Amino acid sequence: MVGVVLFIGYWALALLQLSATVAGLSVWTGWPMLVCSFLAGIVTFAIPFPLLTFAAGIAGAHYGWGWSWIGSVVLFTFPLCIFLVIAALSGVSNSLTRSFAWRPRKT
């Protein structure tokens, strides 16, 4: 059940970031939304440079939606921060479990 919720959340966030990129491209270039949607799809899903995707989405949220820079940055970096915290906590939990787990004595 948790995996389904995370999957839906991941794709909801991806669509939100994609729409921010579309809005930014539309404002910058003045091109129709269909062309900007195609280009944003290429930038988001086909280019293997996550920093370019982050930069395009952050600028799109700022210029296209009129968000502040801080709000735009938080939209794109908050999920990564949450993921890193969860990964760190699971690593600590795993380490503590192995350190203090009961083991039978070797005879």
Strand content: under 5%
Gyration radius, to the nearest Å?
20 Å
Amino- and carboxy-terminal Cα gap: 43 Å
Structural class: mainly alpha
Order of helices and strands: HHHH
Tally of distinct domains: 1
What are the segments in which pLDDT stays under 50 over at least 5 consecutive residues? none
- Tally of contiguous helical segments: 4
Structure, described:
This protein has 107 residues and is mostly helical. The protein has one domain. It is 84% helix and 0% strand. The chain has helices at 2-29, 33-46, 50-65, 69-100. Helix 1 (2-29) crosses helix 2, helix 1 packs across helix 3 and helix 3 (50-65) crosses helix 4 (69-100). The protein is elongated.
Secondary structure elements and their pairing?
Layout: H1 2-29, H2 33-46, H3 50-65, H4 69-100
Question: What's a concise summary of this model?
Answer:
With 107 residues, the chain is mostly helical.
Keywords:
mainly alpha; single chain; 4 helices; 107 residues
